[in-house]
Amino acid sequence: MEDMDSQINSLMSKFTVIDNYIGECEYKLAISTLKDLLQSTVNTSVKDPLCYLDLYYIACYLIDCGGDAGDVESIDLADSILSGEHHEKIIDVVGKELMFYSQANALSLKLGYENAGKANFNNIEPRIRLKKLHWKSYCANKVDVELPRLQTLVNLAIELKTQFRFTEALEWVNQVLIFSEYIPEAYIARSEIIKDLSFASNHLSERMLLDIKDGYQRALNIPNIREGLKSVAENGLDWTLNQLEEFDDADSTSEDADKHQTEHEFSQLSDYRKFCIFSNLTLSEHALYCQCAGSSKDDLTVCATIGLYGDRVIPMEFVVNRIKSEFSFARNLYFECVTLQDKPKLAEELFLLELGNNEYLGLEAEKLRTIYRLCFGILDKIAVAISNFFEIPKITTGKKKRAVKVDFLNVWNLDLDNRREFFNEFKNPGLVALYSISSDLNDRKQGEWDSLKAVRNALEHNFLVIREGESDIDSYGIYDYFAEDIKIIDEQEFISGLKILLSLTRSAIFSFTYAVRYQLTYGEDYSGSKVYPLLNYLHQKET
């Protein structure tokens, strides 16, 4: 034990010199010393766990020093350590969460130098790899709420924002702020997400600006905030205050009154609507950042309240109507399952044989399975809609060049027939977001959630067994009989996947709406076309 303690102390003492160099901003000296440490570690004849821990720390310091010094070569070296021949051994020592977290930091810094700015179809692929690393780090530890897990969620939210997936970005950063009020990056990220959301939605309100201001101010009030973050928050706050000058009543008194009014209005909402808001399942732009009476309805539309031109407005509102209706049904089924409300008497009349295989059956199980089908159906409808709206070239197959049936994963095929350039010419943030979402579900891209697609396929084409409890009993050998045509999944894994699928589907609905709105606002010639303001020409349908 003493020998192990002395080894750890020796390991830590190696990096004391590095810490001193970093404190004095002597990054070149720090990097040079780290390279010497790396060489001696690699040359060590005995490769024990402390050796691999040593390699991990060297890589992390190289990432930090390389980032501060703008030294991409050092970041590349760190990445080669983490991704190289000792990758699995390092994971055995530090765990998957820290490994993927550090690899994501390295890639994020590299992309910051090589692909500054927002994602587009030309630079999206490395950003998708970065997103995947954030997802992998998150998935490696879904229990603890300590750093670096919370920092991982902040980083994920920032990258989702870069890929224009605003609803998910807000969802994750809000989750971080529930657990900790002392992460300035989270407050800054939230303000930046709402700011970017205002551009995507073509709407900037006083309520949004007050939320943006609040985030920057809270970040600046956190003790010992880093200088770089402090500068970002101060610049963001100055921008927000300038925007607020256009609103006459934007003072501290009105902010306090607005807060109390919001709390009162939220208390008047139904339990179901509160559930939708807390579960991030609304289809209301206002509900993304505020819980007042304005969040009481799923009033997301292409037109919004601004009015849009062109003969394609109504067909796209038809699509939004359809997918909103289906999503609200899926959401209602989810609410019934997780709250166990209004369990129908029909469940008592259902007679099923006990077959000793622990399968989750009955009405609640069928509701959950139906949600899966509905969500993937919505995603495929979005694919059909964008295929028509953006006049995406059809993909053909076989000698007769038959058109391939469009779905959410195959509508892209960016590396086929200059399609990447085709999509990039639109310069449409919503399209980028939709492609990013599809990459999460695509097994050909090793998407982090491609298992959800496998579950859906088993639901539709084979036997999907949702297994209750931890026991894997199969008393009559049913699973062996259907070996090639059956997929088995634990109940909790199924429900966890369902939550992610609902979030991805909701994000896709917003992204589709923003993609169409953006194109109709900035990408078309409307001379002589009819304008469709929502509240004047169109009205709410009775249901």
From TrEMBL:
InterPro entries according to UniProt: HEPN_LA2681
Domain LA2681-like HEPN stretches: 315-518
Pfam short name (any one): HEPN_LA2681
Descriptive protein name: LA2681 family HEPN domain-containing protein
Organism: Shewanella submarina
